[in-house]
Specification:
Blueprint (H helix, E strand, L loop, with lengths): L2 H16 L13 H9 L4 H7 L6 H20 L4 H33 L3 H29 L1 H20 L4 H18 L1 H10 L5 H29 L8 H4 L1 H15 L13 H20 L7 H26 L8 H5 L3 H11 L3 H14 L4 H7 L1 H21 L3 H21 L7 H23 L7 H31 L5 H27 L14
Helix pairs in contact: 1-4, 5-6, 5-8, 5-9, 5-10, 5-12, 6-7, 6-8, 6-13, 6-22, 7-8, 7-9, 7-12, 9-10, 9-22, 10-18, 10-19, 10-21, 13-14, 16-21, 16-22, 16-23, 17-22, 17-23, 19-21, 20-21, 20-23, 22-23
């Protein structure tokens, strides 16, 4: 008998014996509630409720057989393909943020080649960001309803098609259309890796899997400048800026066949339908919020931007009333009220909103490095490599740290992030840029520690059938938080910079803006510290 077979026998005996009077088999019996909690740590809830019926003789024998079957199922659920499949999923986590950051490097070349105006160039960035943020929650829900592997593959195919349209664009308008389609399809693909991790991996394995997810997510921002600059300099096949979009095609061509072979399909068990009314209301509300945040500063905050932002609040309220009424009628709401009502969920999502103020840092650092130090975008990509190294090591530390300090892991990473940010501000203020690599490494390390722990804390609060929704909510909060930080803290940065910036004004503006981001991260740390980590007994609170 091998170790796996022995494990099945022992687990089967344990479940079968628990089904009889537990006083005969273990000390410290504390009643049925305690019994249920201990069983639910290892076995599905419905099997626990079935197991704890009084049974003797023939029924005990049946319970023993049931115990073996449940244990065998539990062992089989650990699909041996799940770790190779994680590598495929991480491609889907890496590409969406990469394609946001990589375009910034190509804007001068796009302007020259397509004769694009400044406003069109802004739409090349904001069209993607807005479509991505608007669709994320719906994208996550599509995976829950129709299958996460299917949503991942469909999203990736759409992403490849829209990348081809962007790379072959013959006019600025076609490029903007391609970028909007890229954002929409990326939002279908992006929540599936996080949701699939929740569905495929055991509680013991999730911290490690989420660590790899955080590594891919973090490296994408650093890789954008480096890879984009490198592709434009190399200009493979004479493609120039078009290569930053067309590079996605061979990646997708390799990834999709592997996904079909390695990735297990997961979805909600209950038959449900997509809440199209809720999806439209939410899309309208998020569009009204995100578009002015992304575009407003560039156009000097015109009247329409304030009008749209004012409209977003009643639209969000109307959406939530619609969802509550649909749920009360027994329908299938897009955002399930039970998910939002899960203990700590609102607090965790608010922490995610404040946490991703970090997105604005890369804008401020790029401005400082290129305007203050005269670096090219590619050289800026080289300069932030210490942060990329931190992104690699942080997630490796995070899973081990979680076993030691539990819910304090994410706040620890956020405090380290804040220290790194303040460190860069001091280097800039006191003109000691030669030691910037140290605080940049701390930033990467802190994000690598905090991101997987915080994500695990939030998504682990709900039943696995809603993991796509939870993933969409978390990622959407990241995008909204990033847009808010660029709009609010970015506005402060550019107002301090003035119309005729000097190195002194640039250093002051950078220090103030980065300090605001550090404060936001400390707020996120406080919120996350107040959220109790879920145990197995309440991890499926929203059922």
């Amino acid at each position: 008998m091998n170790d796996g077979q022995l494990g099945i026998v022992l687990d089967g005996l344990r479940l079968a014996l628990w089904s009889d009077n537990p006083n005969r088999f273990r000390p410290g019996y504390a009643g049925k509630a305690e019994q249920d909690r201990q069983c639910s740590r290892d076995f599905p809830e419905q099997q626990c409720s079935r197991a704890f019926q009084p049974s003797f003789g023939w029924e005990q024998t049946m319970n023993l057989a049931t115990g073996f079957a449940v244990a065998a199922t539990k062992k089989a659920e650990g699909d041996s393909r799940r770790w190779p499949a994680l590598g495929i999923l991480l491609v889907g986590a890496f590409l969406p943020p990469l394609d946001f950051f990589i375009v910034n490097v190509a804007l001068p070349s796009i302007r020259s080649d397509l004769k694009a105006s400044g406003s069109i160039l802004q739409l090349v960035i904001s069209g993607y960001a807005t479509a991505y943020a608007v669709m994320l929650i719906t994208g996550g829900r599509l995976g829950d309803l129709y299958g996460r592997r299917l949503a991942f593959i469909v999203g990736m195919l759409g992403f490849a098609a829209s990348s081809a349209l962007s790379g072959l664009a013959w006019s600025p308008v076609v490029l903007v259309v391609g970028r909007v389609c890229q954002g929409l399809t990326a939002a279908i693909m992006a929540p599936q890796p996080l949701a699939s991790i929740e569905a495929l991996f055991s509680d013991d394995e999730k911290p490690r899997a989420l660590g790899f997810y955080a590594m891919a997510f973090g490296l994408a921002s650093a890789a954008g400048l480096l890879l984009g600059g490198g592709l434009i300099l190399a200009s493979p096949l004479g493609l120039g800026w078009r290569s930053i979009f067309l590079i996605n095609l061979p990646i997708v061509a390799v990834t999709i066949p592997l996904a079909l072979v390695l990735l297990k399909e997961t979805r909600a068990n209950e038959p449900e339908q997509l809440d199209s009314g809720g999806a439209l209301l939410l899309a309208a509300a998020l569009f009204a919020l995100v578009l002015p945040l992304v575009e407003g500063r560039e156009y000097g905050w015109p009247f329409w931007s304030w009008l749209l932002m004012a409209t977003s609040l009643p639209l969000l309220i109307g959406f939530w009333i619609y969802e509550l009424r649909l749920d009360a009628r027994g329908g299938d709401p897009l955002v399930v009220p039970k998910v939002i009502a899960a203990p700590g969920m609102k607090q965790g999502l608010t922490a995610a909103l404040f946490f991703y103020a970090l997105a604005a840092f890369w804008l401020f650092f790029s401005v400082y490095d290129q305007s203050g130090r005269g670096k090219t975008p590619f050289q800026t990509g080289i300069d932030i490599l210490p942060a990329a190294v931190g992104f690699i090591f942080g997630p490796l530390i995070s899973s081990r740290l979680e076993r030691r300090v539990g819910r304090w892991t994410a706040p620890t990473g956020m405090v380290l992030l804040a220290i790194g940010l303040i460190g860069t501000a001091l280097c800039v203020l006191y003109d000691t840029a030669h030691v910037l690599s140290l605080p940049l490494f701390a930033i990467g390390l802190g994000q690598g520690v905090a991101l997987p722990a915080m994500t695990h804390t939030i998504t682990g609060r709900v039943h696995r059938k809603w993991s796509g929704l939870a993933a969409g909510l978390v990622t959407s909060m990241f995008q909204i938080g990033g847009a808010l930080s660029v709009a609010v803290i970015g506005g402060l940065f550019y107002s301090l910079l003035g119309n005729s910036p000097t190195n002194h004004s640039l250093a002051q503006a950078y220090a103030v803006a980065v300090s605001c981001i550090a404060l936001s991260l400390l707020l996120a740390a406080g919120l996350t510290a107040g959220v109790r980590r879920t145990g197995s007994e309440n991890q499926r609170h929203a059922t």
